Amino acid sequence: MKKYDYLVVGAGLFGAIFAYEANKIGKKCLVIDKRSHMGGNIYCENIDGINVHKYGAHIFHTSNKQVWDYVNQFVEFNNYINAPIAIYKDELYNLPFNMNTFYQLWKIKTPEEAKLKIKEQVLQSNIKNPTNLEEQAISLVGEDIYKKLIKGYTEKQWGKSAKELPAFIIRRLPVRFTFDNNYFNDIYQGIPIGGYNVLIEKLLQGIEVQLNVDFFKDRVNLENIANKIVFTGMIDKFYDYKFGKLEYRGLRFEQKTLNIENYQGNAVVNFTEYEIPYTRIIEHKHFEKVKSESTIITEEYPVQWTEDKEPYYPINDENNNNKYLKYKNLSNKDNNIIFGGRLGNYQYYDMDKVIEEALNAITLIKE
Ligand code: FAD
Ligand code: UDP
């Protein structure tokens, strides 16, 4: 008899939901995390009344009512709508690409004019079947927007030419012919009141959690204390890179406290030219409309990923996806391991998708 039913590696969103639901059906779980806190990348640190998103801006959005209702059982959400500003060479544009952006770029006022302008540029580009991010972007919004608002941001974000990147990445952004600056098309959106830690703490309440424990540093022991493992870290590392290394993109966050009340007037400002080394500046107080005399900002610098850094983004190009499939096929043969989350499944998942997946994993173990 092993001490636990499940060893859950990673106290992020996937691990926390899995452990909560497994615990509810009487399964004994041990959750470990190599970090010194719970929550994974949604973790916030409260500094002077401001919830600082320590691993980048996290805005909850979903069109899945089941997921929305699920998170709302634990925490109430505010009515924050993400409407980032882009700065390109000291000019300001609204995101995502909408009538406001088209007016700022071309001084045109009607959807018909905007459609015509984009159509002309798309025709000129002569792209028929877009096969990479650059071609996809130009065929969605034309050359002007691509050059000012996409190319520089994308190439610094991913450290690759936009021609080498998969097209799906740019399809995350809406293009619309209305004056609507909402960055997401989803039906539900907001920030948990009190921050994301409220959600994670409720999920993991009463469950054994050990922090500062790296699975790989005590693998033999840890593999023997539970009947099954739920693994939300890097799948390629779990299998000792036997099919080769998957690629990731790293980030460096530079956090500053400023002695002014309001620094940039918006939670998220993107810097779309290549020459500015960070992609965005987050001013955390705006997520929750915090009133305070000072403010906290974070500059987000994309960096090349190396093994000593956190793997924030999987790079889902064809090469990596094919390699990942080999790992996935291998994992399918082992009933004692469940891979979950962004790293376990090597997918560019937003939070709602991770929740959906964790709930699916629970449905499977109930069967
Ligand atoms: P994680 O949060 O990464 O948790 C995995 C945990 O496993 C980590 O705590 C890690 O320390 C631990 N771990 C890994 N390996 C080991 C090991 N060997 N031993 C012990 N512990 C280990 N989604 C949205 O919906 N909206 C957003 O606005 C948004 N913004 C984002 C911004 C950035 C910069 C990033 C990087 C992501 C963003 N996301 C956003 C995505 C969101 O962060 C993820 O979907 C979600 O947090 C993933 O949860 P997870 O549990 O899969 O992974
Ligand atoms: N993107 C861009 N310009 C922007 C914002 C985004 O070109 O101002 C592109 C870029 O390629 C980025 C992708 O759109 O990687 C997806 O953006 P999103 O905001 O969804 O990225 P995330 O929040 O996951 O970093």
In terms of topology, how is this protein built?
Elements: E1 4-9, H1 13-24, E2 29-33, E3 44-47, E4 50-53, E5 60-62, H2 65-72, E6 85-88, E7 91-94, H3 99-106, H4 111-125, H5 133-158, E8 188-190, H6 196-204, E9 208-211, H7 219-223, E10 226-231, H8 235-238, E11 248-258, E12 268-271, E13 280-283, E14 295-304, E15 313-314, H9 318-332, E16 337-339, H10 341-344, H11 351-366
Parallel strand pairs: 1-2, 1-10, 2-9, 6-12, 10-16
Antiparallel strand pairs: 3-4, 5-8, 6-7, 11-14, 11-15, 12-13, 13-14
Helix pairs in contact: 1-11, 4-5
Which structural class best describes the helix and strand composition? alpha/beta
Overall domain count: 2
The portion of residues assigned to helices is 25-40%
In DSSP terms (H or I, runs of 4 or more residues), the helix count works out at 11
Q: Would you tell me which CATH topology of the largest domain applies?
A: Rossmann fold
What is the tally of beta strands? Answer: 16
Describe the structure.
This is UDP-galactopyranose mutase. The chain is of the alpha/beta class and 367 residues long. It folds into 2 domains: 4-78 and 188-245 and 316-366, Rossmann fold (3-Layer(aba) Sandwich), CATH 3.40.50.720; 95-169, no CATH class. Helices cover 33% and strands 21% of the residues. The protein is built from 11 helices and 16 strands. The strands form 4 sheets. The protein has a 7-stranded mixed β-sheet. Strands 9-2-1-10-16 form a 5-stranded parallel β-sheet. The chain has a two-stranded antiparallel sheet with strand order 3-4. Strand 1 (4-9), helix 1 and strand 2 form a beta-alpha-beta unit. Helix 1 (13-24) runs parallel beside helix 11 and helix 4 (111-125) crosses helix 5. The longest helix has 26 residues, at 133-158. It starts with a strand and ends with a helix. The mean pLDDT is 97. Uridine-5'-diphosphate binds next to helix 5.
